[in-house]
Design goal:
single chain; about 400 residues; alpha/beta; Rossmann fold; nine-stranded mixed β-sheet; three-stranded antiparallel β-sheet; PHB_depoly_PhaZ
Length: about 400
Amino acid sequence: MMYFAHEMSRAALMPLRMMTDTQSKLLRHPLSPLSRLPGARSIASAYGVFGDLTRRYPKPAFNLHSTVCDGEEVDVSEVIVQRKPFAQLKHFQRSVSRSNDPKLLIVAPLSGHFASLLRGTVKEMLPDHDVYITDWRDACRVPLSAGDFGLDDYIDYVIDFIEQLGPDTHVLAVCQPVVPVLAATALMAEDKNPATPRSLALMSGPIDGRIDPTAPCELATKHNLAWFRRNLVHPVPAPYPGAMRKVYPGFLQLSGFVSMNFDRHVDAYRGLFKSMRDREVDKIRRHREFYDEYLAVMDLPATFYLDTIKRVFQEFHLARGCFTHRGRKVNPAAIEKTALMTIEGEKDDISSPGQTRAAHDLCVSIPDARRLHHLQEGVGHYGVFNGSQWRESIAPRLKTFIGQA
C-alpha cells in the first residue's frame, strides 16, 4: 500500500503545484501589478522551491553530443547495441573511426539512480576510448511477463554484454556492481572464455563490507532479511507497465540517500530560495543540474535487491569464499590474465576505504605487475567518478592503467 499511497500523494499535490506555479509567474512577471507588491519576489521564490521539491523527476539524458579527439571536435551519438528486459547496452559512438582506442564497458550501478549519474565518467573517457555502458531499466516499467531478475541474472547480463563486445574489452564497475562484475570475470576466466576482460577496474564498491562498515552496511546487518522484505518491498501500482511487480521503490532509496546528508540538502534548498529571490541565474542552473540527476530515481527488482542485501551485505559471500552463481562456486583465483585496478575515496561514506581493495586478496593469481590500487585523498563516494578530482587525478591513472594492460 505504501507505493499506492505515494502515487496518490503525488496526484493530490498536482493541482497545488499548478496553482503555485501560476502564482509564481504572476509575482515575477514585470508587467504584472502583483510583482510590485512588497515581498513578491520572496513569495515567488518560495513557490518555486515548492515546485522543485514536489515535481516528478524523469530519467535524465546523457546529453553527450560531442567530444574532442586529437584536438578536433567530433559528434557522438547513442546507439543501442543490445536490448534485454531489464537493461540495454548503450554505445557512445563517435563520428570518427579510431580502431586502436580501447573498448571500455562501464557497468553502471543498479542501486536507485539511472546510468546517467555516470555522465562525468563517460565524458572523461570518451576522447580516448570506445565507450559502452549498461543502461538499467526502471523495474516499474518492466512487465511481469518479462520474468524475474536477481543477482544471478545480473551476472548473466554482464557476461552477455562483455561477450557482445568481444576480446580485449576493458571493464569499469562503479560502486554496487563490483561484486557481480568480479564474479562474472572469474566465471569467464575459469571457462577460458575468449572474451574475458583484458582489464578490470573496480571503483568504490563493497567487495568486503565487513571492513570499516558504513551506515548502509550497518543497516543491512542490523535487520534480518524478513524485515527488508516486509518494510521495503512493495508491488508496483497501476497504470505502470510493471504493475504488480514487487520492487524496492526508488523513492524509498532516495529517502535513505537524503537522510545521510540531510543538513546539506536543507542548506542547498535554502540557497536555491535565495538565488531565485536574487535572480542569480547561474546558481539556479547549477543547483538544478545536480538535483535533476540526484532526485531522478528508479525502482529495483525485489529479488535482485534482497539477493544483494543477503549475499553481499549480510553474509559477505564473495569475501568469505562461498559466493555462487546458479549453484556454481565462484573462484576469483581463476583470474590470471586480467589486469586489476581498485579505486577508493578517502572520505567515502558508502563504501569505506578497504572494502574495494579487498579484491586483491581474492584475486591471488594475478601477477603483482598487473595490479594497481589507488586511494584518492579528500573525496567522498560521488567524487570518485565525477567532479574535478575524478577528472584531474583518478581518470588519468585509470587511462594509464588501461593503456598498459
